[in-house]
Fold this sequence. Notes:
Helix content: 40-55%
Number of helices: 10
Distance between the termini: 43 Å
Order of helices and strands: HEEEEEEEEEEHHEHHHHHHH
Number of domains: 2
Structural class: alpha+beta
Strand order of the largest sheet: 1-6-3-8-9-10-11
Strand content: 15-25%
Amino acid sequence: MAFQEKVANISQVHVLSPNLNVDQWLGSEVHPIPTLVYSVDMHMRIKTSEHAHLDLQPGEAVCIRPGTLHQHLESRHKGMYYTQGFLETYSDFRLVDHEDTYRGAADRALLWDMFQEILDEPENEQRCALLINFIRNVNDDGTSKIGGEHPSAARMHEFIRINAHRDISIKDIIGASGLADAQAFAVYKQSYGLTPLHHLLKRRVYMAQAYLRSGMDRKSVVEKSGFQSSRQMNRAFHRFVGMSPRDWLRELRAENEKK
């Protein structure tokens, strides 16, 4: 059965949200963007705290809100699964079928509101219908295949993805590549269009925005987003958002009041 036909079998859509009472654990990660994991025909486990987890059965999916601590545990069994996230200019997805992997990009603008609707829907049956429609739209709208990254760049990218909320340095990131500094910078920028430090700071800003939306206090936002100080977070916000965290949050609240 082809993937598009199997999508109709989605029977359960879980939603994970930030839990301010959950502390980081070894191996935990946090995404600054909403992400989707759909277990097509295999069993998958997502760790949600040091002592708790979510087991995905075949046909089940989980939508993870930004700022949610979690950990993807490797499955002993091979099968088909689908993941999707939202970058600045496009929505990236990955379909893994045993040993084969297809990575692609789709229109972010079209899919963003659809995914937010899934996150906000309280009823599972309706969430399933919305997710089925969402995945079908990804393919119906036309997608482009993403070429493979340089292996060393991919290792740095993965290191940032997993550790952005921790106290890591550019030296740590370069160390994950196995290359000399200049070569590591060159292959990373060629693969992703920006430097490793640029990516790290932007990811931390996105995490901070997610935590600020949740109502977390400023001191905790700084710590949980990987910034070394409130001043460093302010500089990053001005660089990538064009305003301070306080002004950004004020604008966000004003927009929400208009709705």
